[in-house]
Write a structure and sequence with these properties.
Layout lengths: L27 H10 L4 H15 L6 E4 L1 H16 L10 E5 L25 H8 L3 E6 L11 E2 L3 E2 L15 H8 L5 E6 L5 H6 L3 E4 L19 E6 L2 H11 L15 H5 L7 E4 L14 H16 L3 E4 L8 H16 L10 H13 L2 H8 L1 H9 L7 E5 L16 H11 L5 H5 L3 E8 L5 E7 L5 H15 L10 E4 L2 E4 L3
Parallel strand pairs: 2-3, 9-10, 9-11
Antiparallel strand pairs: 1-3, 4-5, 6-8, 7-8, 7-12, 11-13, 12-13, 14-15
Length: 498
């Protein structure tokens, strides 16, 4: 059965596919509770995850590195600790991290080709995952240095969207999104420098949280990409995303940004109250065309109507973005240049990457310092919206997910134009450093996932999470899933076991 042929006759949305036998555990929190109760073993969960990864590498291609032996050894140790009565938030639960995240004994290639040496130490966020008992099954694919909203490249091939393998799951955290959407792991971490968690969340029917800058440590980097990039969770439910956020959050002594702690998981069950919500269709100025796809407008309008039914006040209002893009470009390109300098063989880099790195060298120094100095004024300008309003609602992207290969062979300038046209709504919040949550907003006429974005001011994750959880209880988006373990037979996408 083709993914886009499987439709719910009542709604036109893809039909629900659990893809599991009765009683199987799919959620992060659900797995954690079952492990603590002794109704399942870590070894069984990790083995199932590894089997699913292996079964889908030829189709979904979510992982750059898989750790079968190490993960099973860690699972056996988790089972021993559980049997001894130890309890931790994720003890024995399999999770995944992105290819830009250091895991001891594994290379960190960040989507690049070439031979990279294994890392000697875990990054701070992986250290925190391990401290909570999680088992890292592998590292997921990302486009080269996280620059684009697709996950394709000569180093690893194409990562495909489990809802329709002809389309991208987004990027740059496309591997993490695909892994969660396909049921390979219950949740995964991505990184977000211009929407790279929120965009694949939208295009893979997931919840994706971009936390406040510094909420999750980027160490061994004091900050990532001149402060615009942060780490965030991808999951099917708000509860799972919030649980992973709480576990991963915290700082290293060397971090440049250290926001006050929050309790994300507690916010899931908290009533958000009656909120004033601004609905915005306006994208920040980029001097390029950014037409909004009618299916996206319709889907986000439906989310707004749901919020009204839930008792919130919603009206159209636009933030004053000013020329925030002038602050984004220097920080992004300097960040690309800093990462490119770490690559063992820079001749293997994409021509667009080399061009961005050259631009970053030109924009470093005084231009970069001015861009960073403008941040406070930009926060004040955009933050004026959060006097009359509590939350900003926007589309996550302007279009449904493109087909594989749409952007991969374009020139640098044409790639930038196409990228901005498809994804104009996420990146300003990276400049501001503030939190945002992408939630599923339904499907296009072709059955492709779409997302809506809940945005807040500094340190606003708890309110956004509470609101997202309230929406989830009403819309029950987690009930819709793509076929499990998609495979390709004679050019047709089918589901194993159907």
């Amino acid at each position: 059965m083709s993914v886009d042929e499987s439709q719910d006759s009542a709604t036109g949305a893809p039909a629900r596919h659990t893809g599991t036998a009765a009683g199987e555990l799919e959620g992060l929190a659900e797995q954690s509770r079952a492990l603590a109760a002794g109704s399942v073993t870590s070894t069984a969960l990790v083995r199932r995850s590894l089997e699913r990864i292996e079964a889908t590498q030829g189709t979904v291609n979510a992982f750059r590195r898989v750790r079968p032996e190490a993960a099973l050894t860690e699972a056996a140790e988790a089972d021993r600790r559980l049997a001894a009565g130890e309890r931790l938030p994720l003890l024995g639960v399999p999770v995944a991290v992105k290819d830009d995240t250091d895991v001891a004994g594994e290379p960190t290639a960040f989507g690049c080709a070439g031979e990279f040496p294994p890392k000697e130490r875990d990054s701070e966020v992986v250290r925190r995952l391990r401290a909570a008992g999680a088992v890292i099954v592998g590292k997921t694919n990302a486009c080269e240095l996280g620059q684009w909203p697709f996950t394709e490249g000569p180093a690893f091939g194409n990562t495909c969207n489990p809802w329709n393998l002809a389309h991208t799951p987004g990027g740059s955290s496309g591997g993490s999104a695909a892994a969660v959407a396909a049921g390979l792991v219950a949740a995964a971490l991505g990184t977000d420098g211009a929407g790279s968690v929120r965009i694949p969340a939208a295009w893979s029917h997931l919840v994706g949280i971009k936390p406040q800058r510094g909420r999750i440590s980027t160490w061994p980097d004091p900050e990532a990409f001149q402060g615009i990039t942060g780490i965030g969770p991808l999951a099917r439910t708000v509860e799972d995303a919030a649980l992973l956020l709480d576990v991963a959050a915290g700082n290293h002594a060397g971090d440049l940004h250290r926001p006050p702690a929050i309790a994300a998981h507690e916010a899931v069950r908290r009533d958000p109250g009656r909120l004033r919500i601004a609905l915005s269709w306006k994208a920040a100025t980029t001097f390029t065309r950014k037409p909004l796809h009618p299916d996206v407008r319709a889907a986000v309008t439906d989310v707004a109507r749901t919020l009204v039914r839930l008792g919130h006040f919603v009206e159209e209002a636009e933030p004053d973005y000013g020329l925030v893009g002038l602050a984004f470009v220097p920080r992004a390109t300097v960040g690309v240049g800093e990462w490119a300098a770490r690559v063992p063989d820079r001749s293997l880099l994409d021509r667009r990457t080399r061009g961005s790195a050259r631009l970053g060298r030109l924009l470093s120094g005084p231009v970069l310092r001015r861009a960073r100095a403008a941040e406070r004024r930009q926060q004040q300008r955009v933050g004026a919206l959060f006097g009359p309003y509590d939350v900003l609602l926007t589309p996550t992207t302007a279009t449904p997910p493109p087909r594989i290969g749409t952007l991969a062979k374009m020139s640098g300038w044409r790639t930038d134009q196409a990228m901005i046209a498809a994804c104009p709504y996420a990146w300003p919040w990276n400049v501001l450093g503030w939190p945002g949550v992408s939630v599923p907003a339904g499907f296009s006429a072709d059955g492709l996932p779409l997302g809506a974005q809940l945005l807040g001011p500094a340190h606003g994750e708890p309110r956004l999470i509470s609101l997202a959880a309230q929406l989830e209880a009403e819309l029950r988006w987690y009930e819709h899933r793509p076929p499990a373990h998609p495979a390709r037979v004679d050019g047709t996408v089918v589901s194993r076991g159907e």
